[in-house]
Design brief:
alpha/beta; Rossmann fold; 19% strand; seven-stranded mixed β-sheet
Length: 228
């Protein structure tokens, strides 16, 4: 008798989970339609090496940042369902400017230079740090940051420094744990719980650009930010 109760309970659990996932996908679709937001329409706008190169400070922006080689470009491409809108490279640290991408007149994504690995001079690295800091602190259009973290490595000290720097700005921070397909299920759960346990006031998700894991979740988060 207990066996059949257990089977019924497990089936009910998986059916409920499936219904929740279907509802989330449907809800995301409705929000996209309400916003008239099609991420695939994204276009490169411009690159900036100085603050006076930034586009006009209007509308809403979400910036992507992370340690070099964390999979930031791959994540952006997967989220907007475009192959090379953000250029990927086997050489970490290739994003050396702030790159602005326009979705529509009111919404943009921004690709910030990666930190922690790029093979550049100290003076160049200082210039990057100054540029990124100015963007994060002064940009009125900035509504949220997606922090890209390699799930196999977990949060680095540089990631934690960035989080401590950004949180006092009172803007949305979302952590994307990339390359999760390279981990076993229990390892995925472990790194997810570890990050969530350390920063329980920040949203966190597992992600894989190559296997399309968590793409819907990331897209929904973008919509949530833009509709907040």
């Amino acid at each position: 008798m207990y066996f059949w109760f257990y089977i019924f309970h497990r089936i009910s659990y998986y059916l409920l989970l499936k219904l929740i996932l279907i509802f989330c996908a449907f809800y995301t679709k409705l929000l996209k339609q309400a916003l008239n937001l099609n991420l695939e329409n994204i276009k490169f706008l411009k690159s900036a090496s100085a603050t006076n190169d930034f586009p006009e400070d209007v509308g809403q922006e979400i910036a992507f940042v992370g340690k070099s080689n964390a999979g930031k470009s791959t994540a952006i491409n997967a989220i907007v369902n475009r192959k090379n809108i953000a250029r990927t490279s086997k050489t970490p640290g290739r994003t050396q400017l702030i790159n602005f991408f326009k979705i529509d007149k009111k919404h943009s994504l921004v690709d910030l230079p990666g930190y922690g690995y790029a093979n550049v001079s100290k003076s160049k690295r200082k210039s990057w740090e100054h540029l990124i800091t100015k963007y994060l602190q002064k940009r009125e259009a900035l509504k949220a940051v997606f922090l890209i973290v390699d799930s196999r490595r977990g949060l680095s000290e540089l990631d934690k420094v960035f989080i401590d720097f950004f949180l006092p700005m009172k803007k949305i921070l979302h952590i994307v744990l990339t390359k999760s397909d390279k981990l076993k299920k229990r390892e995925q759960l472990s790194v997810f719980n570890e990050v969530l346990g350390e920063y329980n006031n920040i949203s966190v998700q597992l992600f894989s650009g190559t296997k399309k894991i968590g793409v819907d979740r990331a897209q929904q988060k973008i919509i949530d930010v833009f509709t907040k």
